[in-house]
Specification:
Belongs to the class I-like SAM-binding methyltransferase superfamily. RsmB/NOP family. This protein is α/β, with parallel strands linked by helices and 418 residues long. It has helices at residues 6-21, 26-30, 42-56, 59-66, 76-90, 95-108, 116-124, 141-151, 153-163, 218-223, 240-247, 259-272, 313-316, 322-337, 359-368, and strands at 169-173, 183-184, 190-192, 209-211, 230-234, 251-256, 277-280, 292-298, 340-350, 372-374, 393-395, 409-416.
């Protein structure tokens, strides 16, 4: 019997195995030509990816629901098949289609055929609306604990509730851009609920907009580049902020360590008809040969502010990289401060929720550089409550929760004598 959507579901199970079983980041698996998506047409690839993300957003609750029906732990692949079917039903999919596909995938598996009956029996016991009353998935302890300490239990639960949902798609627009229908956010980003294929959206070819989370778009607003200025974009790939700076009319020099990621900056610039000088280099050693009017440093970080878009992160990372990242961010910030003209400004930002990669970095930089000061400038649409006492912007997924939230970021504008 042919089961509709079997290939996409089987691929989703493969993706889940790579993330949950092998600890690989989803982006890396998706880009792997030998990965589970190989040979699938674009629509099926998109479906497999959508299903995988949905499962990763609900693993904890779904496992709790399955637990009473499993006398002993089934093989990992069988568990992922069960998780996928429950999530599909939870998302409103037809139960019979999800169950048939689950049974078929297990039946066809090399060592799982004997579990087909169990899968069928367990899934028949799943309630019609399995997500009802399900507690949002908690972040892992290494991350949750410092966040509870920084923001309180209630805020962390609110962050987790936002992370359980499918995030909207935010676009950054150039003046006069042809853009799809959406909600204009107070900060100027356009928010779409219904996404489909990005390249099929109105105005994509014309290049008047690009995808960038509303929170991410605020870093360049804080930098406020103006036409004719020389602006350095350190750690620039894949280039959302490079495009934004270039669109202001400033001359951008964009630096990134990764040649492959810089390729994406180039593609984005071409599509949008914008220009920037691209340099593939290590910002820790690169010498610009000039000083800039303004510098943006979007430093590498734990990316813990982006879990709603990357729900694989909590399953793959264990926090062990954070200490090294904090040291790297401080070193990059000192480099950035040395590349700006007297009287210029530096914006430091990270897409992290961890204070040590944000508020802590700011405090440490002020202690290292007594001539440095934090400038709190007017950014349209920014709620005054988002500013920290020290003058940084702390953005969290639970801000604008009813609208779908925003990525977690910390950003601060530094001026003075460096
Ligand atoms: C948070 S991402 C930047 C996102 C980018 N600014 C944007 O808006 O699309 C951090 C980037 O830092 C780059 N990076 C990491 N270490 C670096 C270094 N030592 N020098 C230059 N770039 C580095 C990474 O390759 C990565 O592309």
């Amino acid at each position: 019997m042919a089961v509709e959507g079997l290939a996409a579901r089987a691929a989703a199970v493969g993706l889940l195995g790579a993330v949950l079983g092998e600890g690989r980041m989803l982006a890396e698996v998706l880009a792997d030509p030998q990965g589970p998506l190989q040979g699938l047409p674009p629509a099926e690839r998109a479906r497999a990816q959508r299903l995988t993300l949905a499962v990763l957003r609900h693993v904890e609750g779904v496992d709790r629901l399955l637990e009473p029906h499993l006398r002993k732990a089934p093989p990992r692949m069988v568990r992922d098949v069960l998780r996928l079917a429950v999530v599909e039903i939870g998302m409103g999919g037809a139960a019979h289609g999800a169950v048939n596909a689950a049974v078929e995938i297990v039946r066809r598996g090399k060592r799982t055929g004997a579990y087909a009956g169990l899968v069928n029996a367990v899934l028949r016991k799943v309630p019609e609306a399995p997500f009802a009353g399900m507690v949002p998935q908690r972040m892992p302890r290494w991350l949750r604990q410092p966040l509870v300490h920084a923001y309180g239990r209630e805020a962390v639960s609110a962050i987790e509730a936002v992370q359980a949902g499918v995030p909207p798609l935010d676009l950054t627009l150039r003046a006069g851009a042809v853009a799809p229908e959406g909600e204009m956010l107070p900060t100027g980003s356009l928010r779409l609920e219904e996404k489909g294929q990005v390249s099929a959206l109105a105005g994509y070819e014309a290049g008047g907009w690009w995808v960038q989370d509303a929170a991410a778009a605020l870093a360049v607003r804080l930098l406020a580049p103006v036409a004719g200025e020389r602006v350095l974009d350190l750690c620039s790939a894949p280039g959302g902020k490079t495009l934004q700076i270039a669109a202001s009319g400033a001359q951008v020099v964009a630096v990134d360590l990764s040649g492959a990621r810089m390729g994406r900056v180039r593609e984005n610039l071409v599509r949008c008809g914008l220009q920037a000088e691209l340099v593939v280099a290590d910002a820790l050693v690169w010498e610009p040969g000039e000083r800039f009017d303004a510098v943006l440093l979007d430093a590498p970080c734990s990316a813990t502010g982006t879990i709603r878009r990357h729900p694989d992160l909590p399953f793959v990372k264990d926090g062990s990289e954070v200490e090294g990242l904090v040291a790297l961010q401080a070193a990059l910030l000192d480099r950035a401060l040395g590349m700006v003209k007297p009287g210029g400004r530096v914006v430091f930002c990270t897409c992290s929720l961890l204070p040590e990669e944000g508020e802590g970095q700011l405090a440490a930089a002020l202690a290292r550089h007594p001539g440095l000061r934090v400038e709190r400038v007017e950014v349209p649409g920014v709620d005054p409550a988002w500013w920290t006492e020290a003058g940084g912007l702390r953005l969290r997924p639970d801000l604008w929760a009813a609208r779908g939230g925003m990525d977690g970021f910390f950003m601060a504008r530094l001026e003075g004598v460096f």
